[in-house]
Amino acid sequence: MDLASLRYAKSHEWALVKDGVATVGITKFAVDQLTDVTYLELPKVGKTVTVGDEIGIIESVKSTSPIYAPVAGEVVGVNETAVNDTAVINADPYELGWLVKIKLAPGAATDHLQTLAMYEKQIAEDH
């Protein structure tokens, strides 16, 4: 996966928009901070979300964290593989470990999300 093609939320979710659908996951940085992911709860297909809505919970041996919607729209896909085997998130958060697919709402944009360079700068400043 070309990480430069993704857009990033300050809360460590990524989005890849293609044909009006955003594939969403959490970043490698987030996975590394959580350590071993042990539990994942995701929304049901059909749920309507707005930017910043809590769309799931991810737990690790260290902590529990909310997952936020980086885009507005309708959940049209959930990665059941990741729900049933959280090891895929630890191993490959960008390909096999994606979390949800969100069909963008009419007029929804990704302008508020960061580029890879902006996200890397945020991580460097925060840690």
Task: State the main characteristics.
127 residues; alpha+beta; 6-stranded antiparallel beta sheet; 3-stranded antiparallel beta sheet; 4 helices; globular
Record the SSE blueprint:
Blueprint (H helix, E strand, L loop, with lengths): L6 E2 L4 E6 L2 E6 L1 H7 L2 E5 L6 E2 L4 E7 L3 E5 L4 E6 L1 H5 L2 H5 L8 E5 L11 H11 L1
Antiparallel strand pairs: 1-2, 2-3, 3-9, 4-6, 5-8, 6-7, 8-9
Reported for the largest beta sheet, the result is: 6 strands, antiparallel
- DSSP helical segment count: 4
Radius of gyration: 13 Å
Average of pLDDT:
96
Strands, total number? 9
Order of helices and strands: EEEHEEEEEHHEH
Query: How far is the first residue's CA from the last residue's CA?
Result: 25 Å
Give your account of this protein's structure.
The chain is α+β, with helices and mostly antiparallel strands and 127 residues long. The protein has four helices and nine strands. The chain has a six-stranded antiparallel β-sheet. A three-stranded antiparallel β-sheet has the order 4-6-7. A hairpin with a 3-residue loop joins β6 and β7. The longest helix has 11 residues, at 116-126.
Please provide a brief summary of the model.
With 127 residues, the protein is an alpha+beta fold. Helices cover 22% and strands 35% of the residues.
